[in-house]
Write a structure and sequence with these properties.
Chain A is mainly alpha-helical and 303 residues long. Chain A is built from 14 helices and two strands, in the order αββααααααααααααα. Chain A has a single domain, classed as MetI-like fold, CATH 1.10.3720. In chain A, β1 and β2 form a beta hairpin. The radius of gyration of chain B is 24 Å and the shape is globular. The chains are: A mainly alpha (303), B mainly alpha (289).
Chain lengths: 303, 289
């Protein structure tokens, strides 16, 4: 970021503000102000009709002590989902990116396209596929297949049975998690100077695994961080798609994620103040995870 | 036998690649199945949709589901062409404006010296972790307050600022050599001329990438139709496709929603295939330092 350039002679070229202005304006009105507003609303009781009334930390106290659904289902579900789809999906996308980079360009391009394409539609358009695959009667693809190989005798009602909901949602999440971060990782690996590998071999690196740990990852930390941030955001903003699959609230809250909980309070119960407090909790969780990613992959600390 | 260090991005085919391909293949197939399935499902005639046991692949492909999709909209009062029109207008305006704003800001943040620059960059970088669904309600309030609710603008404005896109474009502008700009300034070019004559032509891959990102967000967005617009005739194709998918939980509805999903998916795929070289070029500079 220490990119001090010598182009303009003046230190404060007013044109800079002019060029930034349009973006800054939409950014402020539709990202910055809403975030600040969410923080303010989280300290109020607001039903979308009457003017909000100040309640101090009440909403946060409720989140922590009085919202059984949140503590029992939503928080554990969200953390499990974030760990499996966020962290697990991230590791998977690195391993896949690395494997792809060991292939020739035509093969790599086709494989990358197949892996990336599920993330294009952000899942919304694809809900119908999952509905057919996980259909609860014997015409459902998965049921039909499992019955054919004799694993089950009666069809399983996948999308209603609380035991299967979270795993199903996680599978769908992983399926669509090879997004832009994955592409960034591929580009990162491809850009590593080959001389580094040769030097590594002279210095005693014995196999591909050591190469990955001692050369590949340290040489592409910026891409590792970018992909990590993308994975985290992707994992935490998931939820709306699953409403189409399992309904909101999902049966027995089995696959209720924090985004679903926010929608439940904000748009079904109209407890906007409380929903805002949940939103702030969500944004804080994202920040927390990103801090960890930052610690892991900033340039300064050397291996 | 000393280990020589392996070659990333091999030029030719070697035996060792077979092992990797075999390991990857099951996963590749799993990832591709839903998409292969939807393509097949969309072209299935009625009796195959009802078939038991269900078939994965289509046997006698027809366009029945697509015609049913168009017919269904006639009874709904609002023709499907209206939704197509809405989506095209909204998507194109959003992409054009967003790219204009993003490239302008990227140019300034990368190449112009002004005081607020580094603060703005840090704010944008923090906003990359922004989760839009978390602020749906405050956004709704902002839109009500500005009087943009229930208009076309309600689809466009919230999606114009994409922090990740600005970040990627800015990283790419960083690559444009300063000497080139200095020469232009020396010849008396203004900032605006440098932006239009040098920066824009040189960052085309990044623009293409940002265009894909914005397209993906707008094209499949349902939030704006669900929450910011009440008037059905102002809603988007994605919204319409989804109501169909939800309203028709029957087998016939399945065929229709598969056709709908395919219509939504294909533009994304085509755009990406066309621009993938640009995307990979941009991704090379995507790292966060």
């Amino acid at each position: 970021m220490a990119n001090k350039n010598k182009i303009a002679k003046r230190a404060d070229n007013k044109n800079g503000y002019l060029f930034v202005l349009p973006y800054a304006l939409v950014f402020t009105v539709f990202i910055l102000v809403p975030v600040l507003l969410a923080i303010v609303l989280s300290f109020t009781n607001f039903n979308a009709i009457e003017f909000p009334s100040w309640v101090g930390f009440l909403n946060y106290i409720t989140v922590l002590t009085n919202d059984e659904v949140f503590m029992q289902y939503v928080l554990p579900n969200t953390i499990v989902y974030a760990l499996v789809v966020g962290v697990g999906g991230y590791i998977l996308s690195f391993v896949l990116a690395w494997a792809l980079c060991n292939l020739t360009k035509p093969v790599r391009t086709i494989f990358a396209l197949i892996l990336y394409s599920p993330s294009m539609t952000a899942g919304v358009a694809m809900v119908v596929v999952w509905k057919v695959i996980f259909s609860g009667d014997q015409t459902g693809l998965l049921n039909n297949w499992l019955m054919e190989i004799g694993a089950i005798t009666d069809p399983i009602i996948w999308l209603i049975n609380a035991n299967y909901l979270l795993p199903i949602v996680i599978v769908v999440g992983l399926w669509s998690s090879m997004g832009i971060g994955f592409l960034s990782l591929i580009a990162g690996i491809l850009n590593i100077d080959e001389a580094l590998y040769e030097a590594g071999a002279i210095d005693g690196i014995k196999n591909r695994f050591q190469e990955m740990i001692y050369i590949t990852i340290p040489s592409m930390k910026p891409q590792m961080l970018f992909a990590a941030v993308m994975s985290i955001v992707n994992a935490f903003q998931a939820g709306s798609v699953y409403t189409l699959l399992t309904g909101n609230p999902s049966p027995g809250y089995a696959s209720q994620l924090i985004v679903n909980h926010i929608e439940d309070y904000g748009f079904l119960r109209y407890e906007m103040g409380y929903a805002a407090a949940l939103s702030v909790v969500l944004l804080l969780m994202v920040q927390l995870f990103s801090k960890v990613a930052n610690k892991l992959f900033t340039e300064k600390d050397e291996f | 036998m000393a280990y020589k260090g392996h070659r990333i991005n091999p030029k030719g085919f070697e035996k060792s690649q077979i092992k990797i391909i075999l390991l990857l293949l099951p996963l590749i197939i799993f990832m591709a199945l839903p998409i292969v399935y939807i393509i097949n499902h969309a072209f299935k005639p009625m009796e195959e949709l009802f078939a038991f046991p269900p078939n994965f692949f289509v046997r006698n492909p027809t366009l029945d589901n697509f015609t049913a999709l168009i017919k269904a909209s006639r009874t709904a009062g609002i023709p499907m062409s209206r939704y197509v029109f809405n989506s095209l207008i909204i998507t194109s305006v959003t992409i054009v404006l967003s790219l204009l704003f993003t490239t302008m800001a990227a140019f300034a943040l990368s190449k112009i010296r002004f005081r607020a620059k580094y603060v703005l960059m840090d704010i944008n970088q923090a906003a990359m972790m922004f989760v839009a669904t978390a602020v749906l309600i405050p956004r709704y309030l902002v839109m009500t307050f500005t009087g943009t609710i229930n208009t076309y603008v309600a689809h466009i404005l919230p999606l114009l600022a994409v922090p990740v896109a600005l970040f990627l474009v800015k990283q790419f502008v960083d690559q444009v050599p300063d000497s080139l700009l200095e020469a232009a300034y020396m010849d008396g070019a203004s900032d605006r001329q440098v932006y239009t004559k040098i920066i824009i032509p040189m960052i085309k891959p990044a623009i293409a990438t940002a265009a894909i990102m914005v397209f993906q967000q707008v094209w499949t967005n349902m939030e704006t139709s669900n929450y910011f617009v009440n008037d059905d005739s102002l809603k988007t194709l994605t919204f319409y496709m989804n109501t169909l998918a939800n309203a028709n939980n029957t087998v016939a509805g399945q065929g229709m929603s598969a056709a709908a999903a395919l219509i939504m998916f294909i533009p994304n795929l085509v755009l990406f295939i066309l621009l993938q070289n640009n995307v990979m070029n941009t991704m090379a500079t995507s790292g966060i330092k």
